Every structure is written in structure tokens, then in C-alpha cells.
Amino acid sequence: MSQNLTLRRPDDWHLHLRDGAMLQAVLPETTRHFARAIIMPNLVPPVVTGAQAAAYRDRILAVLPDGADFTPLMTLYLTEDTDPDDVAAAHASGLVSAVKLYPAGATTNSASGVANFDKVRGVLERMAQIGLPLCLHGEVTDPAIDIFDREAVFIDRVLDPIRRATPGLRTVMEHITTRDGVDYALSQENLGATITTHHLIINRNHILVGGIKPHYYCLPVAKREDHRLALRAAATSGDPRFFLGTDSAPHTDALKENACGCAGCFTATNTLSILAHVFEEEGALDRLEAFTSLNGPAFYGLPVNDGTITLSRGDTVTYPEKIDTEDGPVTVFDPGFPLTWSVTA
Ligand code: NCD
Ligand code: ZN
């Protein structure tokens, strides 16, 4: 039975586009369907200053596919040396939409992140004053903490203290992976939480049972099934605190299928097909638009997009298994089951 679903054009509130050849290869995978995306600043070297963000935005705009209608929403990478005046100026000019906090060493290219949170207090206070959101990679890096507990411990040790010390700071818990994250988000005001596509599909068994699956390894790492179910309930609830941030994070196959494989799942290509499948399974197709297209703009104080996209359910959807880049192939996330929803208009 064919079925159509028309939504406001969606946005991606957490996206890695990289730079150079990789940027050029993966950008069309996002601009085909999404109108805007929050662009992660974890390049090497990171995007720290307003001037660096402006230059990166120009490099993205320079390789936009012909006819694409896409706005990159830039972010600054918070370091212990970040200058509050530079952040405020980048916000006032409309250049940046958020600042990103990576605990030093938590994930890919996070070496310049924050180790001593007291050192960024001044920047965070300024951000609270001017209404600039803080996006957080919510994992502690304490070697004594088990990797599967790092998000829950981050909430207690870092996130909640920051929020109490900086009233009014708008914060986004990025790519939540636990029931603890869902529960904390539900207990707070001025807080958003992004959820990735892949964390609605995989739990930690998918990574480890029957052989190690490097293309399912990302950070924060997928947790046990109970957490996946909590994420699915949150994403499909329609609650305005939850919105899509794919965290689509391309690495070449050579870097993923490696004795020390990089973290990141590349989901830009088939995200909307997968999400429609998930929302249909949960009996929540009528709430897909809130998750992909309405809740994010509301949190960021932006208008919803003018245009629409239409998803149709039909025969099994085909999509490329890999995206070719000059650096090598990038494997597209495999949900492990056939997809039947595709973007048709
Ligand atoms: C991201 C990357 O590759 O840049 N990787 C990931 O596993 N999600 C970094 C991040 O968002 O943690
Ligand atoms: Zn990310």
C-alpha cells in the first residue's frame, strides 16, 4: 500500500561535514533533504574563533551543489582560552548559532577541549546573557569511569553543576544515548536534547555480537536495549525538548576498519528513510515532523522552514552502500533491515 507523508523541510541540529575533499563529497548527502544544519567545529585544527568560523562557512558555501537551498549554522569550539568578546561578536553578527563544549579527549578531535570547567565560566556567563546556546558532548573522560557510564556521570558531575552555576544558559545535550539523559532533559527548562538516527536503531549488541562491527561504533557509544527504547519513546513523543541531530560523522573505511577504528556513523544519506520507519513502528508518524522540523527551530528561536518534503512508502528503497570521496569510500549506515520510505518530493 502506498502512503505519503508531507513535512516541513527538516533541519539537522548536529552534523559533521569535515573539510576539503570529504566536505565536497558528503555535503550533497545532507543538502538533498535538509534546509539547515548545526555544523560541528571539530576540524583539525578546530574552529575556535569567529574568523575561523567565517572562513569555514565560506568553504562550505563554495562547494554547495548547484541549486541547493541550504544554510550552514556555524558553531565555535570552546577552549579554555576562548575570548568571550570574540564569541559575543560572532553571535551579534549572526555568524554563529551555538558554542560547542567537548571535554578534552572525549571524542574525535577533542584534544583542545575543556579540562578545567572553571576556566570557561566567563564565556558561559556571557553566553547566558546574550542568549547563545551551549551544545555539550556529554561524556566524562575520567579513565576510572566505564565507557558505558560516561554520559550518566557527566550529567551529575559536569552538566548539572554548569547549569546551576549559570542560570539562564540555554544548553543542548547532544546525541543522548541513555534513559538517564532522557530523564534529565525531562526535568529541565531551557534545555534541548538531540537524538541521532542510529541510536534509535542500534544497541551495544549490534556493535559486539557475532564479530566487531566498526561501522556501528560511535561516541557516545550505543548502550543497552533499555536505553535505546527510552530514546525511541523520547524522540517519538513530540516533546519539544527532543529534536534530530544526526551526528552524521564520516570517516573513510580505512579509518573505520582499523585496529584503532574512528568513532562515527555516517547517516546523512538514509536518515529520513530510517526515521520514517522508526516513527511508523512506534505508531507516531504524525509526530515525525515535530522531531525533524519543528522542535529544533523552536529551541534555537528560528523560524521553521518554508518548503516541504514528501516521504512515500513503497518498494524497498535503494541507496548507495558507500559514498566515494577522494580520500576513500565512506560506508553509509546500514540499519540492518530493508527501508520502504523514501523522499519523493
Ligand atoms: C564524531 C566525529 O567523528 O567527529 N564522532 C562520533 O562518534 N560521533 C565526534 C562526536 O560527535 O563525538
Ligand atoms: Zn558529533
Description:
It contains 11 helices and 13 strands. It is an alpha/beta fold. It has a single domain, classed as Metal-dependent hydrolases (TIM Barrel). Strands 2-3-4-5-6-7-8-9 form an 8-stranded parallel sheet, sandwiched between helices. Helix 1 links the parallel strand 2 and strand 3. The longest helix has 16 residues. The chain is globular and about 55 Å long. N-carbamoyl-L-aspartate (NCD) binds next to loops.
Describe how the helices and strands are arranged.
Blueprint: E1 3-8, E2 11-15, H1 20-31, E3 36-39, H2 50-62, E4 71-77, H3 84-92, E5 96-101, H4 121-130, E6 134-136, H5 150-165, E7 171-173, H6 179-186, E8 191-195, H7 204-208, H8 225-235, E9 242-244, H9 253-256, H10 271-281, H11 288-300, E10 308-313, E11 322-323, E12 330-331, E13 341-343
Parallel strand pairs: 2-3, 3-4, 4-5, 5-6, 6-7, 7-8, 8-9
Antiparallel strand pairs: 1-10, 10-13, 11-12
The chain binds N-carbamoyl-L-aspartate and zinc ion.
Zinc ion is lined by residues 14, 16, 40, 247, 249.
Helix content class: 25-40%
C-alpha Rg (nearest Å):
19 Å
Given the structure, what is the number of helices?
11
Shape: globular
Regions with little confidence, pLDDT below 50 for 5+ residues: none
CATH topology-level name: TIM Barrel
Major beta sheet, strand line-up: 2-3-4-5-6-7-8-9
The major beta sheet can be summarized as: 8 strands, parallel
Bound molecules: N-carbamoyl-L-aspartate, zinc ion
CATH class: Alpha Beta
H/E series, N to C?
Answer: EEHEHEHEHEHEHEHHEHHHEEEE
Rounded to the nearest angstrom, the distance between the terminal CA atoms is: 18 Å
Helix/strand-derived category reads: alpha/beta
In CATH terms, the superfamily is Metal-dependent hydrolases
